Every structure is written in structure tokens, then in C-alpha cells.
Amino acid sequence: MTDGSARSIDDQAPWHQAIAIVAVAAVLRLALAATVPLLPDEAYYWEWSRRLAGGYFDHPPMIAWLIAGGTAVLGDTPFGVRALSSLVGSSSGLALALAAYRLAGPAAARYTALAFLVLPLAVAGLVLATPDAPLLAAVCWTVFCIVRALDAAPGSAAATRWWAVGGVAIGAAMASKFTGVFVPFALLIAFALHAPLRQRLREPGPWIAVAVASLVMAPVLLWNAQHDWIAFRFQLGHGLGTSVKESLLRRQLNLAGSQIALATPILFVLIIGAVVKALRAPRHNTRFALAVVCTFCALFFVYSATRRNVEANWPAIAWLPALILLGATRDGARTVWERRAIWVAGTVTAVLLLQVAFRVVPIPARRDQVSQAHGWDGFAASLDSAYRVTAPVDGRTLHLAANRYQDAAMLTFHSHGRHDLTALNIGGRRNQYDLWTRFIDTARPGDDLLLSLEIPREPGLPNPIRRLAMHFATITPGPVIALLRGGETVNTRQLWTLTGWDGSFPADSTDPRAPRL
């Protein structure tokens, strides 16, 4: 074995405890997935699942395929949308525990599984149907395969087998989110920095992993090649674009604060300590490689924060190999701070779960992210009533749309098959609705439009209405609808009726296919 601390899976210690922790975590996540209403971004990915493809404007397709599998069995319900992604995401804990077990035995596996269970980022990232769930799971299994491959004799059949399986895993990670590519790049850096690891490049395994990962990614690459590499260009601009809204210091503080919050302070410090220790002890080949993967991923987002704000979930992949290193720091009793880290993280996570279910912390509904999932059934019913009243009877067609892609997806989901809305995206960022059939693709001159819009913060007409005014014969404001959670207003929308379309449309930089007037 290349790592002196590696253990046999045949160890007689209570491995079942780590398995039990992983199972409990999976059950808790599934229960949460079944009870929380669908969030707007999840509804957007659900729309993807109704039009399966090799890629989409914003991300690779893995989340869409998982949602399609879940809804095929469980129907178009929040649980159906989330079931497979939650199960796949929950396997992350098993992969981390297995890797820690391989490095340092059952005590390491138990601590790693427990730390992952109470980690707030695992609650946020593995319950919702977003690309983060399959990404985190695939990265965890990639890391496990790396541990097994480096643990095997160089060039052996076992090493080659684990490299090949790792290629499947990292291909799946990149087919979930493009940031998965950081793991093989970081591993290459680790090999370049450390001579004993550099020797592994002479065996076929790593190159087989690259070939297998490329095959897994082939549909994603083909789709992007057919669509002018639109997802790659969007993500490069999204992650490395420049922002002038906040100072460099503010962006770096935001990044640090978000990561400390997602890991909790004590656990964050212990994780950093475990990574530094592994970097200073390169004689443990596997631990050094994991530490380099963590460091590279983290530093990339530190660099990204020099250009724009980094969203809290982006660096999550950095902490996955770090949790293994923390769990493997010892195979005996834990220090008081390691025990406190679990209690603090567990308390924070419990409060988060209670907040999701019962709003124990009195955050105004407008500022509560979970509250954004509430009120849409009532809004969809109001939209349906307005449609029935407004629908013309003279042969013209009444089209339904929202301006924001989140609203279009939520209203379509909550209409339960009655309506399919499109998003106009006037003045907003481009998204997948720009690549699907749009209003101007299906409407005929003279048709009408029933449009859902946000209430503008400033007095006056909403920007989309001002832009559309010259393209319709009449524009009539409709009812203002409040989205409610427990009687408290989360948000408000207004319906507008636009009649007599003239066949032209506003020029808009967010839609490359819109006619230029």
C-alpha cells in the first residue's frame, strides 16, 4: 500500500456505525425533500427534464435526467422532482466514509460520516434538485476511487480498475457542473509536485480515466458544439466575469463568511488544519493528493472573488476531500474541539431544518429563501381564472408568458398540466427559454398575450410593458396577486393583458434570435 495509514476493509471494528449514520442522513433528506415546496430554480430544472437533451444553456444535463427519472415514477410533485437527486446526493456520505475507512479505519469513517451529516452545506446542497447534488456525489465517488487507485500497487489490475471507475465518476461530475473539471486538474498538479505520485503517470490507469471521462462527457460536448458552446461561454462569464458592485475586500470577505457559515466556524478551522497538515506531510501520498485537490479548488474561487462575487455553493467541492482528511487525522478518541465541532454544526443544521419546516426564526417572508417556494398554487389558480375570462373567441390565440424564467417555470409546474408558459426575458439575463420555442415563434399577428410581471420598485410602468407598448394594439393592467406564506406576503405579481400583436418584438441583447428593429 502506498499510504502507511491505509487499512483493510476487512477490519473487524464497527463499520456498521458509519453506514447507520449515512442511512439516517438519507432518510432525513428524503423527508425534507417530500415536505418542502418546490423552489423556483428547481422548477426551472424540472422544465429541462421535460425536454431532455445533452446540455442546457446554464449547466450540463445530469440534474434534468435525474428529475426525469424521479417524476417518471413519482409524478410531477416536489418529491418526484427531488427523489433521485436526493438519493444520489446522499450517497456522498457513503463515498466519503469509505474513503476515510480506507485511509484510517472505522473511527475515521464514523467521524467523516457524522461531520458530513451535520454539515450545513450538505443539507442545502443534497436536498434540493439542483446540479450541486449530483456534482457533490460524483466528486465524492471520484475521491474514493482516487484513494483506492493510489492505495493499489502501481500498474496493477486493481489500480487500473479503480482509475477507470474514477473516470466514470469524474465524467458524471462534469456532466453535472463544469466545476467538476477542477478535480482532475488539481490531481495533475499534485502529481507534478510530488515525485512518488509523478511515477503514477507512467501507468495506464490515469490515462484510461481521462478517456472514460471524455466518453461520459461526449453528449455534453456534442450538444455544446451544436449550440456555439453556449453553456461553456455562459459559465466562464458567470464565474470569471467582472463586477463593480462591491470592492475586492468585500467580495473576499463575502466568500470567507459564506464558507465559514456553510461549514460552521469550529469545523471550518479543523478542516483547514487537516489540509495544512496533509500538505506538510507529503510522504503520505494519498493524503497529500487530497489536500492539493482541496487547496486548488479553494484557491480558484479565491481568485474568482477578485473578479466578482462568488456564490456560497460554488466552492463546496473543495471541502469534500478535506472532510476525509479531517476524519483520518486519528483513529482513536477525538479531541474536545473535534467533538465540539460536531455539536456546533449539528445545532446549526438542526436550526436550519426547523427554520425550513416551521420558520422558528422570524425572518420576514420576503427575505426568506424557502418562502419563495410558497404561494404559487394560488397564483397559478388566479392565472387560470384570468386566462378563462380573457381568452378570445374570434380565432385569435391567447399566449401565456412571464418575463422571468423562474416565474414561467413555477407557474407551469403549479398549473398541473393546464398551461405551459414561456419566458420573454426582456431586460433579464439569457437562459434556456431563449433556446426553446418562444412567443414570437408560435404567435401570429393579431394574437394576444397574458403576461405575469413583478411589481416594479419605482413608480411607473414595468420595463417590459414600456418595451412592448409599441408592438401591441392595447395593453391593460390586470389584478395584483400576492404570493402568501401563512398569511404573510412573500411577493407580488401583476397580470397584464396585451392584445393585437403587430408581428414585431423589442430588440433585446439577452436573446440572440430576437429581431433587430
Give a brief outline of the structure:
The chain has 517 residues and is an alpha/beta fold. Helices cover 57% and strands 8% of the residues.
What does this structure look like?
This protein has 517 residues and is of the alpha/beta class. The longest helix has 27 residues, at 78-104. The protein has a five-stranded mixed sheet. The chain has helices spanning 16-35, 40-49, 62-74, 78-104, 106-118, 120-127, 132-151, 157-174, 182-193, 195-198, 205-226, 230-240, 248-263, 265-279, 285-304, 319-327, 336-358, 376-390, 405-414, 439-442, 463-468, and strands at 398-402, 422-423, 448-454, 472-485, 488-501. Mean pLDDT is 91; it is low at 4-14 and 509-517. The protein has two domains: 16-214 and 242-358, no CATH class; 371-501, no CATH class. The protein is built from 21 helices and five strands. The protein starts with 15 loop residues before the first helix and ends in a 16-residue tail after the last strand.
Q: Which key terms come to mind for this protein?
A:
alpha/beta; 517 residues; five-stranded mixed β-sheet; 8% strand
Low-confidence stretches: 4-14, 509-517
What is the helical fraction, as a range of percent? 55-70%
Number of domains: 2
Radius of gyration: 25 Å
Number of helices: 21
Amino- and carboxy-terminal Cα gap: 68 Å
N-to-C order of helices and strands: HHHHHHHHHHHHHHHHHHEHEHEHEE
Strand percentage, roughly?
A: 5-15%
Number of strands: 5
Main pleated sheet: 5 strands, mixed
Tell the overall outline. elongated
Spatial strand order of the main sheet: 2-1-3-5-4
Give average pLDDT, whole number: 91
Output the structural class.
alpha/beta
